[in-house]
User: Which sequence fits this backbone?
């Protein structure tokens, strides 16, 4: 039994508990908070969800989520001028790069990485769409995660785009800004030393 | 900038970030999960919230939250037979005791504890309602948290109920000092209720 407040409350707890970062206990606390702040939180959240269900869609060009398709980034003509296409695994990565203010670039969201063990092959990702789209750009930046699957996916894209002659780059490896050397793994340190830059 | 997906998505993130246990980063992850699982998660959650906004109310007898008032616990005649009224600070505590299976008791939710520093006096809590209701029961169990404020509240209730001659008990020690009921395991809670002592 999740709560003692009837099936409506139980169902709300069960659904909230499926969100990342929330378990059954925190979902119960969240629901009590919602009930306590009905006017300031529960009703606005309910309305915001209704609007999002109605409005949010996936951009047919790049795989981003927005309230329109093509999305605001794909529709912005200034973004096309730099000729840079940044390939990311997930919308969360796109948001992270935008928060970092990386500049006027376009994106392509793969929707995951190649992972044969999990049954994720090229057909499960927006890879054909990327290959079809890439020739419009001068440079393709592979901003995939520095994991085995991410690097496998980067190799696959490099192979497929090789014949086209487009410039392909990847994010630099190195010491995170504000990071301490003592806490970094050897791989990162080794890469950072290899890619040292003149002051 | 919270996301790159338009005002509808930003607003959803901001509202979710106000839930306990979620910050801006986990709210962004939650929203992306909702968008990814639109059919299985976002639409059901939206509908569940709509139903909860409509249905959930505070029980006029005990202060519990339920879809009806009097709530299911107050309406259950078997709960009255034991003549035990368990006084809790919060609905979360009531749920925790119910999960522990403490038996056929009734509850009274104070809605907080006395805390003069925070400006919470007897009028801010459902204390008059408790005093008025208590004579219907043979025993009042003070299941308030083992904090200074909780114990202050217990003393206040004992003083007010003293002249009525009702048996007043409190949860047994076993509740860690400074701990909160909602975080305790069911076994400890159940033992603590069984070993309640007269004040």
Assistant:
């Amino acid at each position: 039994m999740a709560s003692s407040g009837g099936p409506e409350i139980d169902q709300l707890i069960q659904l909230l508990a499926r969100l990342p970062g929330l378990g059954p206990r925190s979902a119960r606390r969240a629901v009590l908070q919602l009930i306590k702040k009905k006017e300031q939180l529960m009703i606005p959240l309910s309305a915001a969800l209704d609007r999002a269900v109605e409005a949010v869609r996936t951009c047919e060009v790049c795989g981003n989520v927005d309230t329109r398709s093509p999305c605001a980034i794909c529709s912005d003509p200034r973004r096309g001028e730099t000729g840079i296409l940044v390939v990311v695994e997930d919308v969360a990565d796109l948001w992270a790069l935008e928060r970092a203010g990386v500049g006027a670039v376009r994106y392509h969201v793969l929707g995951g990485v190649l992972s044969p063990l999990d049954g994720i092959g090229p057909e499960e990702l927006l890879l054909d769409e990327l290959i079809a789209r890439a020739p419009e750009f001068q440079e393709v930046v592979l901003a995939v995660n520095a994991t085995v699957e991410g690097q496998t996916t980067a190799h696959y894209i490099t192979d497929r785009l090789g014949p086209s002659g487009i410039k392909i780059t990847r994010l630099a490896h190195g010491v995170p800004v504000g990071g301490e050397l003592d806490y970094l793994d050897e791989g990162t340190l080794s890469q950072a030393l290899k890619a040292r830059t003149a002051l």
Summary: Chain A touches chain B through 57 residues (CB under 8 Å).
